Amino acid sequence: MCGIVGWIGKNVCRDTLLRMNDLAAHRGPNDSGSYLSPDGRVGLAMRRLSILDLAGGHQPMCNEDGQVWIVFNGEIYNAPELRPELEAKGHHFRTHNSDTEVLIHLYEEYGTGMLDRLNGMFAFAIHDRRRDILFAARDRLGIKPFYYTEQHGSLAFASEMKSLLLLPGFVPEVDRESLFHYLTLLYVPGPASILKGISRLPAGCFLEKTISGGSAEITRYWRPRFRPDPGPTVEEWSRRIRTSLRDAVRRWTLSDVPIGCSLSGGLDSSSIVGLMREAGINRIKTYSLGFSGKEEAGWDELPLARQVAARWGTEHKEFLLSDQEILQDLPTMVRHLDEPYGGGLPSWYIYRLMAPDVRVALTGTGGDEIFGNYGKFRRYEESRRLLALCHLGARGRGCRATGAALLRAVARLGPGGFASRLEFAAATLEFPFGRHYHAQFNYFSDETKRKEILGFNSASYSTARYMEELADDCDSPDIRDRVAYADLLTQLPEEFLLMTDRFSMAHHVEARVPMLDHLFVEEMLRIPAALRTRPDDLKYLLKKAVGDLLPPALLQTRKRGFDLPVALWLRGGLRAMAEELLSPSRLRAQGLIRPEFHARYVAPHMAGNADHAWRIWPLFMFQLWHRTFVEEHLWTR
Q1: Where are the domains of the chain?
Q2: Would you place residue 243 in the very low, low, confident or very high pLDDT band (cuts 50, 70, 90)?
Q3: pTM of the full predicted structure?
Q4: What is the fold, at CATH topology level, of the domain defined by 234-372+489-556?
């Protein structure tokens, strides 16, 4: 696992390249390296966290004649199978088992077609001197990050955005459309970052750029495909899930160093622990988080985690978190996150707890997105049923009263204006996807942002339209598939995986997500949506597959997020910082958020007259990010 940086252009400055690399030292404390092409137009550098081939994996790495150079962040789990195939085709290896060297020879053999043969998590860049190009790629699900910026024919890239801020002449400025989306989603979606001029290579895409000039071209090589197979029964699918997930766990535990597992007490991480033992891993270390205050007991899943640890005899450690602890650590978290993030932050403490013991940590990330994701699809399905009944009521047949009552019920489902569109919606029996995506209700809708929150003209921006267009690309008409598709391409890579990558690497730990092994994901997307998840029991099929590995109490508990009690903490240890960052005078001077936000949301919450925690929290985190990256440049510390 590494941090990588690169710079392509006429005036590559080696000293700046090395400073960009040093800023990512936390991603790779074991080794570093750099390469500057003979003509001075290409510079590559890396920091390495040694996981495989501890002695022989130094980067940047080149082929035998020095014409192909690579920097690589990630792990290729089928490298042991690919190496003998390449040797049989005449390729010669100098290292013992470096997956980086496998990538070099795979590129020589297959070019961009190499991506179809990879199993793992990766972001890499290859300089092909023969073809005078840079070729870079990001893994299918976006587990590893890749930022880049283009200016005047040059291109620079990095694992973390902060490295690019060191480029000569770069002045950080908020991308207002990204801020608009963030306030609804609590993360920045898509290829844009929170800063103007810096982009993210989307998951499942590769980039090619001619060194001598021209713009980078982005090509998608993978996207989630829904190919439902109606043949297998529920019992047959549960057996396939067990086999496929066990195989993924076996692949993703490839390592030359000790492995641990984050254990939240939920179904996904607990399943991973059981399957690790079933895969033959006998010595397992597990780590869990709880909360120290009595008022926070509702967020605590330590008792369930302890049952799983006892079941499998793991070496188990726990950490109890307080609001004072998070108050102290928040500025450091924000520096490592790179972009504003309005979700929960518990993983920081899990990886900090792991750091003295292990360098590799498995998590259950991805299970929610595959199996129902908190039932986000329910709103759509329930609303379509109501619309159908309203349509019947409007046609008479003695149903006028029922139709009128249902009309009022449907009107309450969404933001203002939906009732006036009922006739059209009823005729098509469709429920607008983007406008009624769950975040429009849980946080800030587009209408609220425009009317109450933002201090600039945002009429041309629409998070609803963004999500609608994304869902329209899905190859399935089923609403459960469409919700899963949207989340797999947005929330998963740009919220959960971004946070997982930054927090794990901040503590020199490599986080692995076997539920996002692409072979497992593709197999799960072949399950018909109505079988894959159910409204009343989202993960019933996963439970059926791995239930014998889990304590009975875990199978019966309700689904809870691994989150933080921010409502309590904003009135407690975080209150002074929140009042400062969201004060009317500060907001007025900044010009992005209306100063009235304080009176409308902050003051009532602090007084205990309302619970606006999940409206205050994303603005609070944005302001902390803005001070760190735009105002005071604290990211360099």
Answers
A1: 2-220, 234-372+489-556, 374-483, 566-636
A2: very high
A3: 0.91
A4: Rossmann fold (3.40.50)
